[in-house]
Amino acid sequence: MKRKLLLLIFSILILNTLTLTAIAVGEEILQGSIEAIDYAEGIISILDYDGNREDIKLLPTTKIEIEGESSSINQLYFGQEVDIYHRDNEAIKIVAYPEDDPERYGYIMPGSRFKTGRVLFLTEDEIEIKNGEKREKYRITPATTVYKKGETTSIIRIKEGDKVLLTFDNIYSSEVSSIKVEDEEEHIKGILSGKLTFVDNRKKEIHIQSPHIYKDNNSWVPYGDHILKLKVNNQNLYNGIERINLSDLDKFKGQTVYVAYSLAYGRPNVAKLQVKTGSSRVYDSKIQDIEYGTGRMIVNKNLIHFNEGTIVVKDNRLVDILNMNLDDMVRVNVDFKYGISYASLVAINGSSILNERVDNTRLSIYIGRIEDIFEYEIEIGSLRNRLNHLKLTEEGLWKEERSNIRVAFTEDTLIYDSQLKEIVPVQALLESRYFDLEDIKNITLRNRLRDNFYKDKIAYFVVRESSFGKELLALNIVAHISNLSYDINHSYSTIGNIKEINHDEGKISLTNVRNFNTLNKNWESTSDQVLDISQAIILYNDIPIPMDKLYTLRQGLKVYVIKYKSTSEDIGYVILIED
Known about the structure:
- The protein is mainly beta.
- About 5% of the residues lie in helices and about 50% in strands.
- Strand 32 and strand 33 form a beta hairpin.
């Protein structure tokens, strides 16, 4: 018995010695949750349990384990808890834990600290997230802090479908302390269709032959590669309503599949896949009726069935079927089989930039005359006799207002003379005695301010409205558009996504373009457009962006443009951009 006891003690000592040796030579252990993954640079950002953020470099030799099994960086996800063994901030080994591991700090039960999931619904007071089949609601308070790209931001920048990490100061409370929003790596870059030719279960990879990418005008255009390889890092694979695994998918080789894909490490990843099961039909209209319980909706007077396998995309995010709402404008790709229409893909037009937002604010665009200028206030007056100033509605129509209104402005308000392509200093417009007009280099601008030129001139007003009043964010003075010749029929709206920015020429290329047709009151798809933005005021997430800061914008951002077309050239005067 003594011999067995001694042998046991000796074995424990040897194991402890080996463990100490493994972490003794300059190694450290960092414990926390994944805050961000930079696939291009191979850097993982960790938020430790003291609230500190640290960047760790991943090497080709870094070992990654999940539940004792060898894994890869593609299996790690935002909010996941990890132990990182590193030397000089270079990872030697990463041990990652599944979310439902009760031994970890982040286990979501009484005593929890973190929670991850995708946003299902969001209000000013509540957030509902979904993880797998589980739905959970949490309270949002004025003290809740929202983080995106490492910076504090407004709750309005959270969208349905975003992956979020919730933290709690009081582990027994449902009140959210902070919401950390994922970066754009998991945003949907597009929808593909093509023939499934190869399934590699070991590499977690599929090959698509002759892939085509879906465009907003309901067409499929060649993607470019004859064979496209996509990584499969989840179980979001469907054959109709049935969820299948990668081994099951191998049985469907030779068939067409629809794939919503994201980009990581510069290569496409499957976000969700649906096997094509019938003949294709396409509908582009509003949802006229919808029943979630039975999985049926009416689009363009057609009965269409949907299920958990239906790919639904909104605002470049993969969203739940519950995020399809009555009166949403949708483009539906249907598989028609045995006389029944099954929705394989639903593209929701997305939330309008002019809609009321989660924090009960909204952006409004007015066009009218600068009637008068007061101390940090401007009065918006009529355009001409018998035509008062106009306000752009959520539907894209210009509506005449009944009477003049005043809007407040601040030192942060962007005031732009689009004819001169010059920013007008706020203090100069106020005729402040503290501002010396001789400091203005542009002689024409200096003379205009001295002569009180801007009073009575037509301008576009971008205003943030709330219960607290109307705040002028940006003002574009279009002095070259005469109030006598102004024709509202020349002013129209365009929506799209940034394709390319030409900083030198002051132009921007848009894709997924839709123009508002004022005759039939519909948004109509059209080809890609190049837009002159040299005369525009640009706001990105409510913040005015001057021309020398265009580099802060990136491809894929959602754009709302107000144009005034008096020539064949498309000139934007108001450009609203958001994530």
